[in-house]
Design goal:
This protein has 473 residues and is an alpha+beta fold. Helices cover 37% and strands 22% of the residues. It contains 17 helices and 18 strands. The strands form four sheets. A seven-stranded antiparallel sheet has the order 15-12-14-13-17-18-16, sandwiched between helices. Strand 5 and strand 6 form a beta hairpin. The mean pLDDT is 96.
């Protein structure tokens, strides 16, 4: 493959390609250390034309391609799985091109850091409402490729709902220009949705038109203690009815998850001394800066206390205290990584079934995997439950055949998700490598045929992100 590397060097310049092992290593392993692959090189394009040139060169040499953004994913989707792979890192495609302050839209390169997009939108008086724990390092191209969810889905929807248009390089090297900021365009198949959530298996997103929203004038947040998931669901339902579109987040954590964050993440603290089995972080916002949203939240909390839905609640007195609440929520991934082997499920079930799902999953772990502890964090407003079977580091060595153990845990919990509650095993993290067996296990023959048909049509040689998203046909 020396000729390919030389061809890419000629295309991108010496600074645009990484070939030394020491330079590649950060791109060849995921941030949790769960997945590792080996690449021929890492290509660093600056333009869509560069990406097209890389793709055509790789096609000529039969080299596989793995698109990579911030490499913050949890499913191994951006790590090579086959020999003779070129990683295309979009980190130099990080220009915020335009912000339209009239209609509320933004054109950005795929390599833009999510936090930088937030800052640019807010400077123009708007917000881009995708919020994740990794927003300081994840890139928008990766967010779109996995259809990331985050903490604001209850109000604004998934990433799919925030995309107006895309520019994509296809496996042929052709460039599809769907980079429109139109709110209405009913002129045929909406092709952008093929690439949102496709994890780079049928195209590489290079630029995106994003939908912005008016910047709220005021927000209010509360940390709530509860005795059960069932009460948390009832509280979330009441919050939605009471606050309507002002409700922006309803995040559930069990006591074990909060304990791990406080143990492992610096600058986090207990909100109050009493311990409860579950906690909810609820946030609402308003376009009026008159204190009314705080009053509405406090009224909701008072009614919920009287009804016995919640045990205790603290309303943030200022933005700093609200940030402390969010620091606990956003410290989840760091804490779980530090604690041990967390076998993470990315389940989605109907909101009304979250309590039953968690109860059944807890019972299964207790009976079949007693060395594991249930760690739970949920976007409760949309039914997404990150159910984590946490095996402490000191116990991990005792579980025997580790790959088999992980497989058995995943099958046990995902069977409950899909078969008992008609849910999904992949809500927002992407299928990546992690959940490819589940695609084959739970998708119908008809659905698999359709999915493979799309893949085979656009990437007949199977060079784009192989062994991800779909089982081998």
């Amino acid at each position: 493959m020396h000729d390919l590397i030389q061809e890419l060097t000629d295309l991108l310049g010496a600074a645009g390609i990484l070939t030394e092992a020491s330079d590649r290593v950060a791109h060849e392993e995921d941030w949790r250390g769960r997945y590792r692959g080996e690449a021929l090189c890492v290509a660093l394009p600056k333009t869509t034309g560069d990406v097209s040139g890389i793709v055509m060169a790789c096609a000529r040499h039969g080299a596989a391609i793995v698109p990579q953004g911030g490499n913050t994913g949890l499913s191994g989707g951006s790590i090579p799985t086959t020999p003779n792979t070129v990683i295309i890192s979009t980190r130099r495609m990080n220009r915020i091109e335009t912000v339209d302050a009239v209609e509320g839209s933004m054109i950005v390169g795929a390599g833009c850091i999510l936090m930088d997009i937030h800052a640019a939108a807010e400077a123009a008086g708007w917000v881009f409402p995708l919020h994740l724990g990794a927003e300081g390092s994840c890139q928008i191209g990766g967010n779109i490729s996995t259809n990331a969810g985050g903490t604001s889905v209850v109000r604004y929807g998934n990433t799919r709902d925030l995309i107006l248009g895309l520019e994509v390089v296809l496996p042929s090297g052709d460039i599809w220009d769907g980079l429109r900021s139109l709110r209405k365009n009913n002129s045929g198949y909406d092709l952008k949705h093929l690439f949102i959530g496709a994890e780079g298996t049928i195209g590489i997103i290079t630029r995106a038109a994003l939908k912005l929203y008016p910047k709220p004038a005021e927000s209010a947040a509360a940390w709530v203690g509860l005795s059960s998931v069932q009460n948390a669901i009832a509280f979330a339902s009441k919050a939605r009815k009471t606050l309507d579109t002002s409700l922006s987040a309803v995040e559930l954590m069990n006591a074990e998850q909060v304990r791990l964050v406080l143990k492992h993440v610096a600058n986090t603290r207990k909100v109050y001394d009493t311990d409860y089995p579950y906690y909810v972080l609820v946030e609402a916002s308003s376009m009026r800066a008159d204190g009314s949203i705080r009053e509405s939240l406090e009224e909701l909390l008072g009614e919920a206390l009287e009804a016995g839905l919640i045990e205790d609640a603290v309303t943030a007195s200022n933005l700093s205290q609200a940030s402390e609440f969010w620091a606990v929520r956003h410290g989840v991934a760091q804490a779980n990584r530090a604690e041990g082997m967390g076998i993470t499920m990315d389940a989605a079930v109907p909101v009304s079934r979250v309590s039953a799902f968690i109860a059944e999953a807890n019972a299964k772990i207790a009976s079949d995997f007693p060395e594991a502890r249930p760690v739970i964090v949920s976007h409760l407003g949309d039914g997404n439950v990150h159910y984590i079977a946490m095996v402490p580091a000191q116990d991990w060595e005792t579980v025997g055949d580790k790959p088999d153990y992980v497989h058995r845990v995943r099958v046990a919990i995902n069977d409950i998700t899909v078969k008992q509650h008609r849910g999904s095993f992949s809500a927002e993290h992407g299928v990546g490598q992690t959940f490819v067996p589940e695609v084959g296990r739970y998708k119908s023959d008809v659905e698999l045929k359709l999915l493979h048909g799309v893949k085979d049509l656009l990437d007949p040689r199977g060079l784009f992100n192989p062994k991800k998203l779909l089982p081998s046909s």
